Amino acid sequence: MNLIICYTPLQVLIAEKIIELHPNERFYGVMLCSVKNKKFDYYAERLSLKCEQFFSMHQRIERFHLLKQIISLKCKFTNVKFDKVFVASINDIQIQFILSAIKFDGIYTFDDGTANIVQSSVYYMPEPNTFIRRSINSFFRNKYSVEKLKVLSKQHYTIYPDFPNIIENTMVIDLFNAQKNQDEKLANQPITHILLGQPVYLECDKNVRLAEKVIKEFNIDLYLAHPREQYKLDNVNYIDTPLILEDYLVQEFSHKPCRIYTYFSSAVLNIKNPNIEIVALRIETERPDFIECYNLLDKVGIK
Description:
Elements: E1 2-6, H1 9-20, E2 27-33, H2 38-50, E3 53-58, H3 63-77, E4 81-87, H4 93-101, E5 103-110, H5 131-139, H6 146-152, E6 153-158, E7 170-172, E8 192-196, H7 204-217, E9 222-224, E10 237-238, H8 245-253, E11 258-262, E12 276-280, H9 288-299
Helix pairs in contact: 1-2, 3-4
Organism: Ursidibacter maritimus
Pfam families: Glyco_transf_52
Protein name: CMP-N-acetylneuraminate-beta-galactosamide-alpha-2, 3-sialyltransferase
């Protein structure tokens, strides 16, 4: 049996594709949820349906509860034998402790979103080396680190074929199963205009003014709110779905045209479909993380 560990809804989408590539193999699925909401619950349920066995846990960040969960995970998985292990968030301490507890023949990694292709992300920077972290690793016998797991990974499954990744041996995963050329039948169909919500500013009123300006200027039909938004817009239809952006587009717009407007959402880098056009709305900013995202959009030709 194989073990596949997910940490985010996007990872579940990739995990489903990996499982499809191994039709004659059994899977034990693990979903560690950093937040508790309907979206995470929905994708945890989806992963469970693809696996013969399944375990999920809502992660706690308070030190006492974190230690309790580490002990619980070690008790549950100690000496459990797996053939292959598939994992994305190799920096997560609880995932490292699961890997330290089990036995396996080979480890395979897959994308944790754009963190895999941004050179300043946690996968390319030294891990925390505080006294507390060293003590926890030593006391609970954590065998692994990001660097060790990168060395051990036999293959990396990626949705970013045009970028270098954490290891050189990569295999491309196509979330859309998209045709290479635009469907000529769609040429005369109306284009749906979708704005991706994003709290660009700290002040809600500034975010509202920006969004309302874009909605009016580009004739936006649908609005997908960001989970962190604390405001409501008028004069636009909200998309009400438990799906993340990538999954929503696969199900709703694989065979009809749409145009996505974004300020700097890295999620659009995951979209590969000739029927879906991406428009980057540039705002004046000096924030390094925003600028880095714009640079990534430039590299893939999103203007």
